[in-house]
Amino acid sequence: MLRDTWLLFRHSLRITLRQKVGLIFGAIQPLFFLVLFGPIFATIGTWETLVPGLIIQLGLMSTGMAGFGVVFEKRTGVLERMRVTPASRLALLLGRVLANAVTLIIQVVLLVAAGYAFGLRAPVGGLLAGLVLIVVLGVSLAALSYAIALTMNEQLFAPVMSTAVIPLVLLSGAFLPMAMAPGWLDALSHVSPFRYALEALRELFSGHYLTGTVLAGVVVTVGFAALSLTVGTRVFNREAA
Amino acid sequence: MIKTADLGKIYKGGVEAVRSVNISVEPGEIVGFLGPNGAGKTTTMRMLTTLLRPTSGTATVAGHDLLGDPRQVRRSIGYVSQSGAVDPTVPLGDELELQGMLYGLSRSDARARIAQVLAMLDLEGMESRLGGALSGGQRRRVDIAFALLHQPVLLFLDEPTTGLDPQSRANLWDHIRSLRDEQGVTVFLTTHYLDEADALCDRLLIIDHGEIVAEGTPAELKAGGRTLDAAFLDITGRSLREEAGV
Fold first, then answer.
1. A215: containing domain
2. Which residue among A23, A56, A94, A184 is least packed, with the fewest CB closer than 10 Å?
């Protein structure tokens, strides 16, 4: 299984890295927020609050849309060809989602570097721990995105996902902390795993590691990853025809 | 090489795509699997290639139990689907190498085998070409190349010549024949072209309404001086079939 995962990861990553323009464009939207919204936000908050929010937005928009790739593979017959090989279903999924996670890391590093230019000052330990958390979150999102792409009408995937991402970004508190929201909105946002991940990320970027918020973020993110990979593998096994 | 007993598939929602298929294919045969649209050809082929789980019956494919050991079945078969298998954006060599390595070949063995298979299918030196730059006939031969890298004993071809010009079809028939004659590969193929079935296959199985309704050599089915088209229509009727994809 490990060998198959590695082979598929390397192959998927090679395809992604060939499209350098796409990689850069994927990171541009959060960069716009950083450049055009960040200076306004900085008058009421800190860059250590905003940049993690933009990272969550990037994760949702980048790995959340990973299913596009598998829609293409399904259409061209590539996926079906691979499903007739002896490669495990988990490897077929993991190889792809790990490549998506590496893409996300590159984009996050670009965003954090730009954030530093504006005034972000997060400790190295917090940045690295945050990166690990965002990779786990990215793997989960990509796995779910593949599962949705394989079960949903191909034509609907793009409009449904791009619409679903917006409330998920807003409910996570990416632009303003949900503590500022009215009670009902604050309560609603607790249903979303991205709120917990984001709050943990903010704590880590502020140099607070061993807190309840970080623990909650880690537990929810790992649980979300386990659930997403289970669903993704089942769908790959059953539906990817 | 293939043996099924009452193999059936009912989809969620209760649609019975295959009622009860009983077939037997011997090693070294080229068997054509014919039927009108919606008769159950593709569903049967997808079950035999492990892409769909049967809801009833049993089958042995290439000596392995289809339900009990699907991974061994996958190791032993090659499958070329209707929709093709070529990524138009990736160099063929990269895709073929990945495919070979997913079957357990080392990189050097995969590369050697790729060169061998491409030469066999008149595609020498095409490793650096993108899938999107190939002609229809070349693309279909590349589909077959994917299915042959691991030297399967049994090859499933789902409508292999659909959309090809007469020259490409004839060329593909030659390749399929030589796979059997020179390498002993058993071939199980679906087609809507009855001239193809007649020219290429040792034996034909006709499925309709999810069951095998006739089988025999092309000569046996044409007995009485009728054409294969006439025999097919006599067996399956002349009413139009609207169902697709099952």
1. 2-240
2. A184
pLDDT in tens, B166-215: 887 888 888 889 889 988 999 999 998 999 899 899 999 999 999 999 99
Instruction: Point out the residue among B94, B131, B146 whose CB comes nearest to the CB of A11.
Output: B94
Closest chain A residue by Cα to residue B132: A76
Cβ–Cβ contact B88 with A under 8 A: yes
Q: What are the DSSP calls for chain B, one per residue?
A: -EEEEEEEEE-TTS-EEEEEE--EE-TT-EEEEE--TTSSHHHHHHHHTTSS--SEEEEEETTEETTT-HHHHHHHEEEE-TT----TTSBHHHHHHHHHHHTT--HHHHHHHHHHHHHHTT-TT-TTSBGGGS-HHHHHHHHHHHHHTT--SEEEEESTTTT--HHHHHHHHHHHHHHHHHH--EEEEE-S-HHHHHHH-SEEEEEETTEEEEEE-HHHHTTTT--HHHHHHHHH-SS-------
The number of distinct structural domains making up chain A is 1
Partner-chain residue, chosen from A15, A84, A85, that has the shortest CB–CB distance to B90: A15
B75–A76 C-beta distance less than 8 A = no
The complex's ipTM? 0.83
Determine whether the interchain pair A77/B52 forms a contact, defined as Cβ–Cβ distance below 8 Å.
no
* pLDDT tens figures, A75-109: 888 988 999 999 988 898 899 999 999 988 988 99
Q: Which pair of structure tokens corresponds to residue A104?
A: 């996300």
Q: Model pTM?
A: 0.82
B235-246 residue pLDDT tens: 888 776 655 444
